[in-house]
Amino acid sequence: MDAPKEIFLKDYKLPDYYFDTVDLSFFLGEEKTTVSAKISVVPRVDGGAAPLVLDGVDLKLISVKINGNELKEGEFQVGPRHLILTSPPSGNFILETVTEILPHKNTSLEGLYKSSGNFCTQCEAEGFRKITFYQDRPDIMAKYTCRIEANKSLYPVLLSNGNLIEQGDLEGGNHFALWEDPFKKPCYLFALVAGQLESRDDTFTTCSGRKVALKIWTPPQDLPKTEHAMYSLKAAMKWDEDVFGREYDLDIFNIVSVPDFNMGAMENKSLNIFNSKLVLASPETATDADYAAILGVIGHEYFHNWTGNRVTCRDWFQLSLKEGLTVFRDQEFSSDMGSRTVKRIGDVSKLRTYQFPQDAGPMAHPVRPHSYIKMDNFYTVTVYEKGAEVVRMYKTLLGSQGFRKGTDLYFERHDGQAVTCEDFFAAMRDANDADFANFLLWYSQAGTPIVKVTSSYNAEARTFSLKFSQTVPPTPGQPVKEPMFIPVAAGLLDSSGKDMPLSSIYHDGKLESVACCGQPVYTTVLRVTKGEEEFTFSDVPEKPIPSLLRGYSAPIRLQSDLTDDDLFFLLAHDSDEFNRWEAGQILARKLMLSQVANFQKSSPLVLDPQFVHGIKCILLDSSLDKEFIAKAITLPGEGEVMDLMEVADPDAVHAVRKFIRKQLASQLKHEFLNLVKENRSSEKYVFDHTNMARRTLKNTALGYLASLEDEEITELVLHEYKTATNMTDQFSALAAIAQKPGKARDDALADFYNQWQHDYLVVNKWFALQSSSDIPGNVENVHKLLSHQAFDIKNPNKVYSLIGGFCASPVNFHAKDGSGYKFLGEIVVQLDKLNPQVASRMVSAFSRWKRYDETRQNLAKAQLEKIVSANGLSENVYEIASKSLA
Ligand code: PHE
Ligand code: ZN
């Protein structure tokens, strides 16, 4: 391997040349594809004759011309990564290149590749350089045309960005299509698709009356499964008009579903390409979670048309500018389409389960990273999910209207530009004349801030004080941190559980009024900006219970001095539903940690009756949303609890979580049984909040019950499995049965495979259910499944299901004999030769090896060392593995 080169944000330089127009012409053949590119080049500064460096990887250069003249030896250099024009003419010129590529041999799934016989592209972040020689960086924005020529019977459908302006038949059974995209774009948004596809067609009329043709393309047999995707697309288009004032800007919008895709989906201008698992759904084959994911991701990619495409990133360090913002937008969209609280709970759980560990490990990086070796490695939960939290904080600070003013100004200022995170910040600030103090630190400092808060009530003065102190833990390259600007939404509950009206707060030597326009205020946003800081509420008639960080107003770890009684009180009464859930989670985490200590001392495990009572009250509270109940009775995940331990102990945490679940099931068996009976689905599957909430609650209850050793329950779960009329219920019942090894499990798994073997998306669920199972010694099963006829290591979804699923089960992946580590180590090396991006995602499972005991550390480290020393290792895997070892 060439010595991997690290790229730094601080080294950003404007390009020496801009590209104005780009005319591409593809000849798609079975053996090879020929790409001709004609680019009009404009030097940035007049008279500059700096070399023009074009990126290009795995390309065969056939010819290169400037202003129509073929270049001769000495006038250019070609290497494995670049084509350099040593002394281009001064002034504007036309550059023409012809290259050849081999899409059918491309297993990396970036650039132009084949998926199930069809051609498709993936260019973000740096895949365009695998298609043609180009300045492959997002601040080069050009207008494109794209001509595609191919055999008509093999590739009847030819798609690219923008409008179709010409098409026709050619000699020899070929045909062509010419597409023109009127909008300037960076090359990472270029896309081409060619193949045997059919479309579901619909239309959307925009707020200004433009009629847009909507087309969702799939192989013919999948077409019936696109109804929900179309519904989601139309809902997203409407929502973006209503909530952000953003209208669609072309007469056509295409979505293509492909089975082989590294990521979830891609927002190419007017030609979104989707991983098929995020488009295709039918009630019989997709779960509620799939339906919800499709809604969110269709929204996400559509929303990118404004946040990403019309306004794009100056360089890849700014990725969160488009991703954090677009995730925030898709979260809000899903909230408005379903339940806001439940959506928020899901998003916060995701942050805690995946982003907190990243922020505390060797790959910790700021929302805007300072450096990278492979950009692919920075499509992370930090850039996406923490980035979305950063955007959410602007809204928390400015309110809905102020936030909207900010986004309006952002679009007005930067339409058609490639910009930075500061530009977004400045738009928010300027539109509101806001004081954001040191808010920008959220983009540059990694690590999850830890905020401690203590409270005190002064009965005589009728004041209530909150004292905050914050620290940001050290992360690689950032040993010392500055205090951050943390918006803490807070309210006070009186002894009856009602919100107290807030009058004024004394802070920083000033008394500020909270109430506004005569309306009582129950939640206020405290601006915590210092290492230590106090806020004192005045006119507080009785000792309150504070409800802090309402709605999870900042991505921090909050440690408060609330007692268990306070927390049970909040669980029962808080008007902020999110914080009701949160109170239950804090109690559950405490409980689990205390029992982990017992387990490690070999003391018997016990379950606090007050906890059981708290859960029972939630279960029986008919005023609560059913999906909320399901979330509130779900214990924090094993990873989340391990994250709170000095030395992570997967066996202890697993045993404790299992113990508590079983105890709850046996003590609340009657209640759980009722929930199952009362919430069975009606015949017809409806994807709306009410129906989904019923199913979720019923299946959560069923999952609890199935942890019992009980004939009657086994019968019940089998009955649910057999009578299920949709995949949500069927799969939940299967998962419930699969909790315990034995004949019932084996039979059900075999039956399920038999029923669904024709549907690869369902088969992937079947793989994942088995691979992530906690049954002892599961690594052997997973090994066997690798050679199952339905498995294919070249397909990312199958790898994520089988291998990713295995790594998600702490007991088996972290098995003390090292079998899990060895398994993953071998797979990563094998996978890396085919698809470095997928291999690199898998190797990340090792990254927190230092959190475990010495035996495990040594075993994991040995695997990482072996990987790093493998021949021909990709930069992708090298970066993750070597940073993990450092
Ligand atoms: N930009 C895509 C998104 O919407 C993600 C992606 C990145 C897809 C890189 C493919 C490659 O989030
Ligand atoms: Zn995105």
Automatic annotation (TrEMBL):
<dbReference type="InterPro" id="IPR027268">
    <property type="entry name" value="Peptidase_M4/M1_CTD_sf"/>
</dbReference>
<dbReference type="GO" id="GO:0008237">
    <property type="term" value="F:metallopeptidase activity"/>
</dbReference>
<keyword id="KW-0479">Metal-binding</keyword>
<dbReference type="Pfam" id="PF01433">
    <property type="entry name" value="Peptidase_M1"/>
</dbReference>
<feature type="domain" description="Peptidase M1 alanyl aminopeptidase Ig-like fold">
    <location>
        <begin position="447"/>
        <end position="560"/>
    </location>
</feature>
<feature type="domain" description="Peptidase M1 alanyl aminopeptidase C-terminal">
    <location>
        <begin position="564"/>
        <end position="886"/>
    </location>
</feature>
<dbReference type="InterPro" id="IPR024601">
    <property type="entry name" value="Peptidase_M1_pepN_C"/>
</dbReference>
<keyword id="KW-0645">Protease</keyword>
<protein>
    <recommendedName>
        <fullName>Puromycin-sensitive aminopeptidase</fullName>
        <ecNumber>3.4.11.14</ecNumber>
    </recommendedName>
</protein>
<dbReference type="InterPro" id="IPR037144">
    <property type="entry name" value="Peptidase_M1_pepN_C_sf"/>
</dbReference>
<feature type="domain" description="Peptidase M1 membrane alanine aminopeptidase">
    <location>
        <begin position="230"/>
        <end position="439"/>
    </location>
</feature>
<keyword id="KW-0482">Metalloprotease</keyword>
<keyword id="KW-0031">Aminopeptidase</keyword>
<dbReference type="InterPro" id="IPR045357">
    <property type="entry name" value="Aminopeptidase_N-like_N"/>
</dbReference>
<keyword id="KW-0862">Zinc</keyword>
<dbReference type="GO" id="GO:0008270">
    <property type="term" value="F:zinc ion binding"/>
</dbReference>
<dbReference type="InterPro" id="IPR042097">
    <property type="entry name" value="Aminopeptidase_N-like_N_sf"/>
</dbReference>
<dbReference type="InterPro" id="IPR012779">
    <property type="entry name" value="Peptidase_M1_pepN"/>
</dbReference>
<dbReference type="InterPro" id="IPR038438">
    <property type="entry name" value="PepN_Ig-like_sf"/>
</dbReference>
<dbReference type="InterPro" id="IPR014782">
    <property type="entry name" value="Peptidase_M1_dom"/>
</dbReference>
<dbReference type="InterPro" id="IPR035414">
    <property type="entry name" value="Peptidase_M1_pepN_Ig-like"/>
</dbReference>
<dbReference type="Pfam" id="PF11940">
    <property type="entry name" value="DUF3458"/>
</dbReference>
<keyword id="KW-0378">Hydrolase</keyword>
<dbReference type="Pfam" id="PF17432">
    <property type="entry name" value="DUF3458_C"/>
</dbReference>
<dbReference type="InterPro" id="IPR001930">
    <property type="entry name" value="Peptidase_M1"/>
</dbReference>
<dbReference type="GO" id="GO:0016285">
    <property type="term" value="F:alanyl aminopeptidase activity"/>
</dbReference>
<comment type="similarity">
    <text>Belongs to the peptidase M1 family.</text>
</comment>
<dbReference type="Pfam" id="PF17900">
    <property type="entry name" value="Peptidase_M1_N"/>
</dbReference>
<feature type="domain" description="Aminopeptidase N-like N-terminal">
    <location>
        <begin position="30"/>
        <end position="189"/>
    </location>
</feature>
<dbReference type="GO" id="GO:0006508">
    <property type="term" value="P:proteolysis"/>
</dbReference>
